[in-house]
Amino acid sequence: MVWDVAVIVGSLRKDSLTRKFVLAMAAIAPDTLKLRIVEIGALPMYNQDLEGNDPAVVVDFKTAIQKADAVLFATPEYNRSVPGALKNAIDIGSRPYGGSSWSAKPAAIVSVSPGALAAFGANHHLRQSLVFLNMPTMPQPEAYIGNVTQLLGADGRISNTDTAKFIQGFLTSFAAWIEANSVKTKAS
């Protein structure tokens, strides 16, 4: 089975290192995973007063999440937490109450940073939200990618052999996690 994985990239920057790393991950993903980025940059700020009258961009976003078999969150770290755009996307997808697009979607997190701490704080802060959202989140292996500028080659691929092997193992584990936690698998 090929699992459709919605990838949420927390950075909106045009030359985002997080986005570049996700694209490098997609290039070495196992055949059982189809990674596709679901954009969050055009989403309006969450406002409960607008629930039930969602603009098309919100409807399209929620639909993309609902259609996915799983979600991979890729986040940088801003002030020891996730970027505001990522938190906003999470909030939008979680509403209306009782109708969350995220519920029961197997998930994994990769945090990416040019620094040595590898966005550890953002990774764990995000995990707290995913527990509330009822997203079974892969506990191991954890993916903290520090010093990312030293890991990507000019061609956009992961140039460090050990990192490439780790990411391949991470993605293989994620495919198994999806298989074990998917609503589709349980319904079969």
Description:
With 188 residues, the chain is α/β, with parallel strands linked by helices. Helices cover 39% and strands 14% of the residues. It is built from six helices and five strands. The chain has helices at 17-28, 56-67, 84-93, 120-132, 161-181, 183-187, and strands spanning 3-9, 33-37, 70-75, 107-112, 143-145. It is globular, with a radius of gyration of 16 Å. The two termini are 12 Å apart.
Question: Helix and strand layout, with pairings?
Answer:
Blueprint: E1 3-9, H1 17-28, E2 33-37, H2 56-67, E3 70-75, H3 84-93, E4 107-112, H4 120-132, E5 143-145, H5 161-181, H6 183-187
Parallel strand pairs: 1-2, 1-3, 3-4, 4-5
Number of strands: 5
Biggest sheet, in brief?
5 strands, parallel
Helix content: 25-40%
Radius of gyration over C-alpha positions, nearest whole angstrom:
16 Å
Oligomer: single chain
Tell me, rounded to a whole number, the average pLDDT: 93
Order of helices and strands: EHEHEHEHEHH
- What structural class do the secondary elements suggest? alpha/beta
